[in-house]
Design brief:
Strand order of the largest sheet: 1-2-3-4-5-6-7-8
Helix content: under 10%
Strand content: over 45%
Shape: elongated
Number of strands: 8
Number of helices: 1
Order of helices and strands: HEEEEEEEE
């Protein structure tokens, strides 16, 4: 992915996140999560923010700090999350966006990668605290998958 396409993607996502409040149908959410990077076999801690943009659509940025055997690793995600709703349930969501990730071994140069994200998850929406679990595929150079579970706390009124 070129730097130009990265900037374009970030611009589109930031515009979506700053949509007029009138278009927002729900409240924002913020919370921690535990992640597992499948291919690298790394555990990480992170947080995510859900900002309503339109009905059933949220701007969904998140970050992770991983704990590899040596060195350090991190991930930043700029996604849009679409909630699948019907009369019976509204717990399933799909999404996608941009992933930026980096690593630095104890000895050696740091490495940063940009990839496309696809994600799918489930989230309870009952009460002010919403548990969730999701799987994220990061597609591109060095494709990988991540499993995450955590809590979203309702913020705002």
């Amino acid at each position: 992915m070129s730097i130009r396409s990265v900037w374009f993607s970030l611009s589109v996502l930031l515009l979506a996140a700053t949509a007029p409040a009138a278009a927002q149908s729900g409240r924002a959410h913020l919370g921690p999560h535990l992640a597992y990077q499948v291919d690298a076999e790394m555990v990480g801690l992170g947080a995510q923010l859900g900002v309503p943009v339109a009905r059933q659509l949220e701007f969904y940025p998140s970050f992770d700090i991983y704990f590899p055997d040596n060195g350090s690793a991190w991930g930043l995600n700029f996604d849009l999350k679409y909630r699948i709703t019907n009369r019976v349930s509204n717990w399933l969501y799909l999404g996608g966006g941009l992933n930026l990730s980096g690593s630095k071994p104890d000895r050696g140069a740091s490495h940063t990668t940009s990839r496309a994200n696809l994600l799918m998850g489930i989230e309870s929406l009952r009460g002010p605290v919403h548990p969730f679990a999701e799987v994220r595929a990061m597609l591109g150079s060095g494709s990988t998958a991540q499993l995450a579970a955590g809590l979203n706390f309702t913020i705002g009124r």
